[in-house]
Design brief:
With about 375 residues, the protein is an all-alpha fold. About 80% of the residues lie in helices and about 0% in strands.
Length: about 375
């Protein structure tokens, strides 16, 4: 009886948590939705007002549809490129329809010619453009049977009008910027890398190498997904700064897309994967004389903890930018601590003071990975 009452309570708790998460997400995304809705309304009204007086029947629906498409592009740059592609495709379709009607008349054969020329004649990488050309040509071909040829130019003019309206509104009314999103994505990578380094350090200090080595390796391999996500956000941020009128008021943001920090973190991720792979291989090496000595593991655990702190401090304000502050001091302290340890361990290995001399190549691999990781952070900090 008690079990049957606990289960519904858990279900209700999970449902309540999901509702709270959804409500928080809606609150956080509401301003963006309001801005996009307002921009769409302005662009549609502008396109209608400009195109209605000279459109047949006073209904410029194609202009409004094109304006909505352009104003909702994720960046101003995409608005312009999409508009150019759309207008060019419409013009190409109109020219193809007129040429086909003049040569073959409005027949089924003309439709077949349009399909062959439009679908097979263009670059294969631009499938959407070729299909748009074909559909425009077929519609224009059908219209030539009942309407004057001059009236076929109206859809192209409506498309051009809607494109200009959508681009203008998207560029002048709070054009989208994604610098904050790119910063958050880069910080997420840094915190994930730092957390893994610290967890590996804690695991080594607690003598859990064999039990957790493969878990660390799996986590290190999944860091690639975070890198891909961050790289996409950086690309979007860079693109959003192109032709963006807000950059005039926020010129300093042009230099803050976190590309340099991302490149450093990409290298750090490779080193972390190397460390995790070496530890996993050593944990399951059947040669006892290849196992790492506990003296080395204890010191290496401290090193990984310092390296994890250094990676996380690297993306804190004042650290990656090279300005003075507590974050930069902590980053500098972590780097210096690891470099001192590295010199000490190099001397011990050189004198043969470490146990398990058969694992010398493992010592070297682990030390080299940490040295490269900290060297990259040190170089970025110095800059």
């Amino acid at each position: 009886m008690q079990h049957s009452t606990i289960l519904p309570e858990r279900v209700m708790a999970k449902a309540a948590g999901a509702m709270r998460h959804l409500a928080h997400r809606m609150r956080s995304e509401r301003p963006g939705h309001v801005v996009r809705g307002a921009k769409a309304l302005i662009a549609a009204s502008l396109a209608w007002g400009v195109a209605a007086p000279w459109s047949p029947g006073g209904s410029p629906y194609l202009a409004v549809a094109t304006a909505l498409l352009m104003v909702n592009a994720s960046t101003v740059y995409q608005s312009v490129t999409k508009a150019a592609q759309n207008v060019v495709a419409k013009l190409a379709g109109l020219v193809l329809a007129l040429a086909t009607a003049w040569l073959f008349g409005v027949t089924a054969g003309s439709v077949a010619v349009i399909a062959v020329v439009a679908v097979l004649g263009g670059p294969r990488r631009r499938t959407d453009d070729r299909l748009q050309i074909a559909s425009t040509a077929v519609i224009a071909l059908a219209a030539t049977a009942t309407a004057p040829v001059g009236s076929l130019v109206v859809p192209v003019l409506q498309t051009l009008t809607g494109a200009v309206a959508g681009i203008a509104v998207n560029a002048l009314v709070l054009p989208p910027l994604y610098v904050d999103e790119s910063e958050a994505a880069v910080r997420e990578v840094a915190h994930s890398v730092g957390a893994l380094l610290r967890d590996m350090g804690d695991g080594l200090a607690e003598r859990n190498l064999t039990a957790k080595a493969h878990t660390w390796l799996h986590r290190a391999r999944t860091l690639e997904k975070r890198l891909t996500h961050a790289e996409e956000r950086l690309r979007q941020a860079d693109e959003s700064l192109r032709w963006n009128t807000r950059c005039v008021a926020h010129a300093r943001r042009k230099d803050v897309t976190y590309g340099e920090a991302f490149r450093i973190l990409r290298g750090a991720t490779l080193q972390v994967r190397g460390i995790a792979r070496t530890l996993a291989d050593n944990a399951h090496d059947h040669h006892a004389d290849h196992h790492l000595g506990q003296q080395f593991l204890d010191r290496y655990a401290e090193t990984l903890g310092l390296a994890g702190a250094a990676v996380q401090e690297f993306v804190e304000p004042g650290a990656a930018t090279g300005s003075s502050g507590a974050s930069r001091d902590r980053l500098r302290g972590a780097i210096d601590g690891v470099l001192v340890w590295h010199d000490t361990m190099t001397q011990l290995i050189g004198r043969g003071s470490l146990t398990k001399p058969g694992a010398w190549y493992v010592y070297g691999s682990l030390m080299t990975d940490v040295e490269r990781l900290l060297a990259d952070l040190d170089y970025a900090d110095a800059r």
